[in-house]
Structure formats: structure tokens, C-alpha cells
Specification:
The structure is a single chain. This protein has 398 residues and is of the alpha/beta class. It is built from 16 helices and 13 strands. The protein folds into 2 domains: 6-184 and 376-392, 3-Layer(aba) Sandwich (Rossmann fold); 191-375, Rossmann fold, CATH 3.40.50.2000. Helix 4 (88-104) packs across helix 5, helix 9 packs across helix 14 (343-355) and helix 12 (306-313) packs across helix 15 (357-375). The longest helix has 19 residues, at 357-375. The chain starts with 15 loop residues before the first helix and ends in a 6-residue tail after the last helix.
């Protein structure tokens, strides 16, 4: 039976001593890429003042954008050394470094993010005698070699980023207590959001009167950029002018090849003048604030969909296929869910939003309240603190 998300639960009773005690949580992650997991970790560091009773620390193997953001937020980041599972000595060395940290410091919970971190570091945490957690950021079928390695070290508690992700926990750790905690997100108004819409659009060669559709995602085929382009090709002759901003950079060789294929597809479909590939951007909130519609038609289920919530907070109607986490985020008050794989339906949905300014405005108004209900940072960070304290006391919720 699936547990209810924390933001829909009644307050969890606890004794007054526990209410006052600071929870120390160590987050273990590879750190070499940047996506949804790293966005959550950076948010925990940057907004830690919203939950002063929880002290987040971080342990990473690789330096990069995540380590830079943690440092900028004034958070402690322990470096364990570069690890390649194919080179066992790097694993043993990193485990020794983590054990040394755990011998010096006590944490209420040590959370490994994703199977890679669990496979590499779960045994070291377990050997230290400290409480071990696993954060499920996706649906785990339990079939990959990394999942099989991770399964060897059952955690004391599992945190799942959505009900959809929680449904896969039984495939990894069927006996582990679990919590559903939606990702805490920075829902504060960025200072540079005040830049005028016309200024942002002018810098991107986009007319003020054009309806802007934006997608922000990794350059991976399952994110649905190809289906998005196919849908746009079906509505390219609408009388209302529109432009699409494709935001996201290629981080790996296969992503660079995929990005190049998208550019070619846009040319073949006659969209080269309408679709702008903006690459990796650090000003996503600003871009969302200057757009009109958010569309990301995932071909396979998104475990949650952080950028969907960010788009809702920016008062954009969200359009996606009805899969995975999108079913928990988007409802009739704030967007359109299209039957999976239905490109014609996707085109019709986008067309209706492009042509009907009133519909865009109505759905856009529903977004911010929906975003706050799902991912208010103080609420969800306090939920994580409560989960850490329960795990430390031997409790949990199965």
C-alpha cells in the first residue's frame, strides 16, 4: 500500500526533545553530472536556513558544478576521490575515506542517492554502525547490474521522490520502511526574474508578440524532444506567431549526437526559424518567466519532474504526456496531460494554448499554488528531518 506524500499527511507527533534536536544528514552522491538529483542537493544546501533544525553535509566523488554550488552555499562537502567501479581499488579507497569521516562524526542518517552511490558506499555506512538511507529518485525495476549491487545492502529507510518512484522500492528493498517526500525546491522569486520580458526575448531574437513554448531538459531521447518537434511541425501554420526554446546542454558524447540529430530534424520539418536550441543555461527561472507555455512530452515516465514544478511556479501551463510523476504534478487547474505517445493530441493541445490566450492565463494562474503545495521547501525539508530522526531512533513507516 502506497503511503501518502508528506505534504498531504497529518502532522507527525514527536516528543518535545526530538522537536528541538538538530538532525544531521550526510548526503552521498557521485557529483559528476548535474540533473534533478543534484538540483535537490543544491537546494538543500542553499535553503538550509528554512530548516535550521537540520544540518545537511555532503560527500562527493567528483568535483564539478554541484561541488561549486555547495561551496557557494557555504555547505560542507567531503571529497572521497574519483571512483570507477571497473577499478576496484578506487572503490576501496573511497570507502576508506568515508569510513574515516564516519568514525569522526555522527549523523542521524547517511543517505545514498541512486544505486551507484548505494552500491559503492552502502557497505561502508553499514560497517560504521550509522543509519543508512536510500533516496529513490526514479522507479527501480531491480534488474540492472547497479541495482543488483545496491540491493546487497538494505537501508534503514527509503525516501522516494514520488508515489511513482515508491512503487519501485519493493523491487530493491521490499522490507525497508519508506517515506514519500516530494523534492524541496527554491520557490523564492529570483532577483533577476525582474528583468523585463522584452529584454529576455530581445536577447534571444524572439518577438514580443510571439507565444513562446519552452522545454528544459537533459538531451536524452526519453525526454521527448523529437515528439515535441513532430507536434510543432503540425501547427507551424497557425496564424498566431510562436517560437520554441529548447533548453539543455549535452553532457555526454551520446547526448551531443542526439542534440545534432534534433537540429537536423528541426531543419527537415521546416522549423529551423522557429526552434531555438539554447544549450545549457544557468538562468532557467528567467527563461521560464519570459515564456508562455512549458512542454516536455516524456516518452517514458519521469520519476517526478522538478522542472514541471518550476514551470508551474513561473505561472506557465504545463503540457506533457500522462506518465509517471507528471500524473502527480499536473492537473486540470494548471495544465494538459495528453495520452502517452499521442503526437496529434500533443499538437492539438499546444495549438489550443497558442491560439487561446484566455486558456493560457487560466491554467497559468493555477500553477503557483500547485507548485507550493507540492514542493514548498520548508515543508519538505522538515519532512526530511523528521524522517532522519525516525530512522535514527529505529522507527520508520513501512
Amino acid at each position: 500500500m502506497l503511503s501518502r506524500p508528506v505534504n498531504e499527511r497529518m502532522p507527525i507527533p514527536c516528543d518535545r526533545a526530538a522537536e528541538r534536536r538538530t538532525a544531521r544528514v550526510l548526503h552521498v552522491n557521485s557529483g559528476n553530472l548535474y540533473g534533478g538529483v543534484e538540483t535537490i542537493l543544491a537546494t538543500l544546501a542553499r535553503l538550509k536556513s528554512l530548516c535550521p533544525a537540520m544540518e545537511p553535509d555532503f560527500a562527493l566523488c567528483f568535483e564539478g558544478r554541484l561541488s561549486e554550488e555547495l561551496k557557494a552555499a557555504g555547505s560542507t562537502a567531503h571529497f572521497l576521490g574519483n571512483v570507477r567501479i571497473s577499478r576496484p581499488w578506487t572503490v576501496w579507497r573511497a570507502r576508506r575515506r568515508l569510513r574515516a569521516i564516519l568514525s569522526r562524526e555522527r549523523f542521524d542518517l547517511v543517505i545514498c542517492h541512486m544505486p551507484w552511490s548505494m552500491a559503492v558506499f552502502g557497505p561502508a555506512v553499514r560497517a560504521s554502525g550509522q543509519r543508512l538511507g536510500f533516496w529513490a529518485h526514479t522507479f527501480h525495476a531491480g534488474q540492472s547490474w547497479l541495482e543488483r549491487l545496491a540491493r546487497r545492502t538494505p537501508p534503514d529507510v527509503v525516501v522516494a521522490c514520488s508515489r511513482f518512484a515508491e512503487a519501485g522500492v519493493d523491487n530493491l528493498f521490499p522490507q525497508a520502511p519508506r517515506e514519500v517526500i516530494y523534492p524541496p525546491l527554491d520557490l523564492n522569486e529570483p532577483a533577476d526574474r525582474r528583468r523585463s520580458r522584452s529584454s529576455v526575448r530581445g536577447g534571444l531574437n524572439t518577438a514580443e508578440d510571439a507565444v513562446v513554448i519552452v522545454q528544459v531538459s537533459r538531451m536524452e531521447a526519453w525526454k521527448g524532444q523529437q515528439a515535441h518537434l513532430e507536434a510543432l511541425a503540425r501547427i507551424k501554420n497557425l496564424p498566431t506567431p510562436w517560437v520554441c526554446w529548447m533548453v539543455g546542454g549535452a553532457q555526454r558524447p551520446e547526448e551531443r549526437e542526439y542534440l545534432e540529430s534534433l537540429r537536423k530534424q528541426a531543419e527537415i520539418l521546416g522549423l529551423a526559424e522557429r526552434v531555438r536550441f539554447l544549450g545549457q543555461r544557468s538562468d532557467v527561472p528567467v527563461l521560464l518567466g519570459a515564456a508562455d507555455i512549458f512542454c516536455q512530452p516524456n516518452l517514458t515516465p519521469e520519476p517526478f519532474g522538478i522542472v514541471f514544478v518550476e514551470a508551474l511556479w513561473a505561472a506557465l501551463p504545463v503540457v506533457s504526456f500522462a506518465l509517471g510523476g507528471a500524473l502527480e504534478i499536473v492537473d486540470d487547474s494548471c495544465g494538459l496531460l495528453i495520452p502517452p505517445g499521442d503526437v496529434e493530441g500533443l499538437a492539438a493541445g499546444l495549438g489550443s494554448l497558442i491560439e487561446q490566450a484566455g486558456l493560457r492565463a487560466t491554467l497559468g494562474r493555477g500553477g503557483p499554488a500547485r507548485a507550493a503545495r507540492l514542493s514548498d521547501p520548508a515543508t519538505q525539508m522538515n519532512a526530511l528531518r523528521a524522517a532522519a530522526l525516525r530512522a535514527n531512533s529505529g522507527g520508520g513507516r513501512a
